[in-house]
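Working notes for the structural subgroup meeting. M.R. asked for a predicted model of this chain before we commit to crystallization trials. I am recording the input and output together here so anyone reviewing the notebook later can reproduce the run.

Input as submitted:
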Amino acid sequence: MTRYDNNDALKSILIKGCNYEMENIGLPRHDVHLYRQNSVLLGYLSPTDYHRVHSPISGKCVHCKMEGLDKKSVSVKFFGGKFNILNENKRLVIVLESEHDDVRVALIVIGGIGVDTIAYNSNFLGQRITKGQELSSFRAGGSAIALFSTAPIKYVPDFEQGSSFNRHVEVQVGESLGSY
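Returned structure, recorded in C-alpha cell form:
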C-alpha cells in the first residue's frame, strides 16, 4: 500500500504525463473537494495476493456504481506508469458514510489486465455495511485498490513511518492502518 499526502501528490508522482482527473473517477461530485485535500492510499495486488476487498469502516453505503464499463482494463506496468488506471480501467466505486460522523470513505476497486470481472453485490446501496464485511472480489489476475477519505486519517505509527515519502508498505488482510 502506498500513501500519498493528497490528490496532488498522487497526481504528480504516480500518473505523470496522464490526463488524470479526480472528477472522472466516478466519485460523487459534491465530495470531490474534500477527497482532494486528504491522503490517498493506493495498493496494487499481484496475481498471488488476496483478491477480496473488505470495508474499512462501519456505515451506510451511499454510492455503489461500476464505472468504465466500455473500457478495456490494462496494467500500468505495460505502459511504464503512463496509463491512467483511475480514469481508464473498469472500476467499482463504493462510498461508505461513517455511522458516527460525516466521514465518507471511497473505495475504488480497479480491474487490471485480464481482470475485467469485479464481483460485488449491486444491492449494497443504502445498506448498513460493517467494518470487515466483504465488498467485492476479483476473478483472477492483478488489480488495484484506491482509498479516498473526506477527513484526515490518523495512521498507526508503523504504517505512518513506513509509508513516508510515498514508499510502498506491504500490509496483511485485517491489519489496521489508521482511524479517524
